[in-house]
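Escalated from tier 1: 2-phosphoglycolic acid holo job.
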Amino acid sequence: MTKTIRPLLAGNWKMNGTRASLDQIKAIADGVKAPLSEKIDTLLCPPATLLYVATALCDDSPLAIGAQDCHQQVSGAYTGDISAEMIADCFGTHVIVGHSERRRNHAESDMLVRAKAQAAHDAGLIAIICIGETAYERNSGQTLDVLKRELIGSVPDGATAATTVIAYEPVWAIGTGVVPTSEDVEEAHAFMRAELIERFGKEGANMRILYGGSVSGANARSLLDIPHVNGVLVGGQSLKAVDFLAIYAAFERQFA
Ligand code: PGA
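Tier 2 regenerated the structure:
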């Protein structure tokens, strides 16, 4: 299937990485080369402590740098939080919001995730909005209902294809090495596409929908072949340049 939407390969380092890891960011930045880099977008989201120095390291690379979360307010008495403006100030271009680890560990609701995505848009950042069902929800047949609810609740009204990326991450597939079947991914992505078109029209038709959860160099090709999979969000396999670049190479097939 020919895909017309420009794909995105995004890495999420979570709470991993110190200054000693900067050589991995540099190696990734150096490895993201033309001609493939002219056809896909690449992004790495290190911890906030490395944001500013990482953007400087990637100055002459197509690799974009983003953050893993932001506060919904621009500034104020919110100890420990960082705002979307601060991310933009460090030359970050994207921010992940509503990751299941934030939803679970920090009790983030759809309403809060939507406010964070709106704050990202207001600061000129691209919001990567994560949604996905838990194992319990899947086993009780609620997957599509959960996706519908989270899409409605977490995506702000003014979202466009340029400002918003959806990341479908089944919670039970994150960090487990277990990936849903291609049929299951296809069903979920087709469903999300239809929902996005219904609400956002042409913008929804062009919005990128990533798959995330145990993506590796070994399974990336088959995931990228699935209709309406417009890239991947990678956790564990984004930490080492060699692993991340193996996933990058898998995108070649989409353009072969
Ligand atoms: P994983 O994480 O690739 O380690 O499963 C994905 C994510 O949480 O974004």
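The CA atoms of residues 83 and 228 lie 31 Å apart.
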